[in-house]
Write the structure tokens for this entry.
Amino acid sequence: MSRNTTDPHAIPEYVASSYYAGLPSRPALIYRAHPGNPWFPLSGHNVFHRRKLLCPVFEHPLANLWNSGLWKDVQKAMDLNGVHFTTMDVVRFRAELDDEAEEQDEEEANTPALSPVTIWVGVPEATAPTACHNAALAVLSLLAHHDITDVNLEFRASEYRAASRGAAALVLPPVSAENPLRNVQAPLTSNLGFPVSAVSKPDSQGTMALFLAEEGSSDDRLLGLTCRHVLFDNTESNSDYRPHPDAPDKNVTLLSQKGYDDHQKLIDREIAGTSIMEDYWERTMQRFQGQDDAPAQEGQRLARENIEKCQEKREKLRVFDPQFKRLVDPNSRVLGPVLFSPAIKPGPDGQQFLEDWAVFEVPRSKLGNRFQGNKLDLGTAISVVDHHLPLRGIIGDEDMRIPGMKDRNGDPCLLVVKTGAGTGTSIGKANGVRSVVRTYNPEGERAEEASVAWCVLPLAYDGTRSVEPFAGDGDSGSVVVDIRGRLGGMLTGGGGWGSSLVGFDTTYVTPFWWLLERIRANGFPDAHADV
């Protein structure tokens, strides 16, 4: 740990490391300001035995003020006090008692389950608690000027991270949930969420967001959408990109080279697994030999059935394996060239959403004659017909702030889902207050102007002790939709703590209603997502 524990405002180490138990990356608490709202004591069993869950904020006076630009004044307060924040979210916390807690002390028993609204600031781990203290005083004074006195501030160790990772139709047709090759084929189908990269970035890949069509277009091309940082390396100039007639195309590929190698290893493991399971069922058959009772006969029948399934799956894998091996050359996996990508910066229209997107060409011939348009393969995450969710409509700005649904507690709620090349399908809950994001270079200097994003929080499932993150590495570019299939936005990154990040505590998304306006304003005036 590199935190300064001699700072007069420092949090004790044993508290700092356990305060956010329950969150995906379990970030360390650096400093907190709970004036008049002493929600969560820093002593007693609760520090260790009450996990915290993130909750969205919709109906609070801070929400409209923040979304209308108050966050810029908060940013100034951070900058003036030397707090190099990476993210700023407006959230609430729900504390849940761990089953292992033997008994509660009086202070803990009186702690409410739901916290006040909290400005949750991500900072580098080495940030001085005194700097956070001074910044918090300035922000609390700012809020008091707006007659808001019921908001807490908490600072935690966190970084912003972009979510990229390191002949016949190129992409496969959709597969059913019962297909024995689903594990190896589903990530390579034309359903949204398949992995994309650039020939120039062999070790990194992200996710294809969705297809766009152009009204009145006479050719067979579609447009593909993903994040710019998925396709462009940090060494390349951060300027608007359009193809030059005298320069080679910047081609987008299905899978990076590393992604291809990893997928080949998956196929090899699946083939080996069929042999292991066949041996198991063969031994099961032998145990029942010579027995004529009903249970033994049923056991033999089940064993024979599973032996046949293993043999069938292995035969299909051995047919698929050489087909996949023919794609080892990146040039054989090319989807199409990048047509336009703006420089990564906050948008020019005052909204300050991040311009981190790229449009590339996708000939329909690469998708085969069973292409079904913009659909998400949800697997078993949500029960829909044939586990394929067609995308229709767009979640507007107002619906993001005031959703038309409630959770079981009667609070506003907007459930969203994504399928990413990194972490697969997951469900989350969108926040009604925009988050603020800022990145820094390795020398600690500010790399870009602060931008805002739509924030998605992990969803806590009833009856489980762990909270699954909504997204992680490899998910950049994933489309985020609500459970009705309305387009919400494109995933760009997330906030969390630790070098071996298992997933994001907070996931950041660029709203599609804004993205579509920017795409149309930059050379694709008739683009639409009704594909």
Notes: The CA atoms of residues 125 and 157 lie 5 Å apart. The mean pLDDT is 88. The chain has three domains: 1-157, 159-255+334-531, 256-326. The chain has eleven helices and 25 strands.
